[in-house]
């Protein structure tokens, strides 16, 4: 890596984020989705559509997304769709709450318990808390997930 | 300049006038390349505003006492300075507003809804700032006028053939276009546009928010009916904008906002408007800001608009030599006549990621859509970074940007 000028940005752009940003996981349309929502950061041009498939018992069976945006927003959506699979809706919402705390403050006092391992996977995004203008890039996917779980084809925004 | 040696400016002395330029950003020298969003302020402007508040402040046009008379005199002197700056024929043709956006909204209300007929049309262009799109959509929705959008070419220049076509049926009441694009840097041929509009029986408004900073503007030479610019991009304060409007048009236009200072007499039955431009300046105006704008005009005129223009041309040449050479960089727009505003995309990274990286190098650029969403759609890009130059920008800063962009591309590769 010849980007010596930017070495101190490795806290924000960790390899896992660059990787998920370049090759987002679950980047597809789910034709049999039960819930969808659009997320939009109008000021930035980050835009995504989220698809959630619910199991008969109500938990999240599958999640996927499509869209365009910065490395942070794409990586966050990629990691989120990976980690919420198999979770109950309540667990997914709780993870979203915890993630917002993590993104805004860099720490997450409530990230232990049964979701500790999943929150650990999201931890590489905690570096955004040093970049106030970028927090909304990281949280867009989670706002969109809430909108999808709320049941409408509502437009979510983390502005 | 026609064979003459271009006037030069003393960059070191100019940079010393702007205290903020010696601030450090994350331990690095502050490289400010976002003057197109809002320019920094020289000590001369800051000092004039402080002096006004410390020695000569009171409300204007109201008090029969010394301080108010002094303040009124200073406020009206600012109006005269703006009139000279634009080469207006009559000082009354200058209306102070809160911003360029306010000024365009004033025209959209008082002229668009107040004078134009619902059967008429307004022509804007694909490269307008939202401030010159949304007020016309609102006038269309409220008043029924038609909104036409003149195309631009792939090079980012106004498509004059399309403008002629849009004007052909004689229904256009107003052409409202930018004098310099805030994204592409394109300078539009104002005199020619005005001639075309006038021949078709339309009036013309220029959004000079960017242009007035970079070029000498002569509203009589280009024969503008309305010309708009803002203080804060011209090294002056926020909170003040300017609307130049020909007297006959102001005469015909109803007021925009009602309130104090814009009336000749008021009873509960009726009010009589004050003569223009007071008719359009309801309420206490931005007095301190007007004094700041006056100081900003004095400042740029002391350097000379010709010298500023020549300096900027050198920066544009430098940027055009460097930026397109960087692998993976795409510039938006290649207009022949352009100013120091460059929007670009990087193939390996989104604009926000690039801006965050540049910030680490102390370089401030804007990222996103720069209040010109339809223009980004026109070029099929989601978002761009924008570097915009001011009179304090150095060639070395352009090089620094180019070097940092090269490294940013490697970082995200």
TrEMBL record, chain B:
This enzyme's EC code(s): 2.8.1.7
Limits of the Aminotransferase class V domain: 32-401
PANTHER family assigned: CYSTEINE DESULFURASE, CYSTEINE DESULFURASE 1, CHLOROPLASTIC
Domain of life: Bacteria
Cross-referenced Pfam families: Aminotran_5 (PF00266)
Lineage: Bacteria, Pseudomonadati, Pseudomonadota, Alphaproteobacteria, Acetobacterales
Species of origin: Falsiroseomonas selenitidurans
Required cofactor(s): pyridoxal 5'-phosphate
Presence of the UniProt keyword Transferase in the record: yes
Reaction equations catalysed: (sulfur carrier)-H + L-cysteine = (sulfur carrier)-SH + L-alanine
Protein name (Swiss-Prot/TrEMBL): cysteine desulfurase
InterPro entries with a match to the protein in the record: Aminotrans_V_dom (IPR000192), Cys_dSase_SufS (IPR010970), PyrdxlP-dep_Trfase (IPR015424), PyrdxlP-dep_Trfase_major (IPR015421), PyrdxlP-dep_Trfase_small (IPR015422)
CDD domains per record: SufS_like
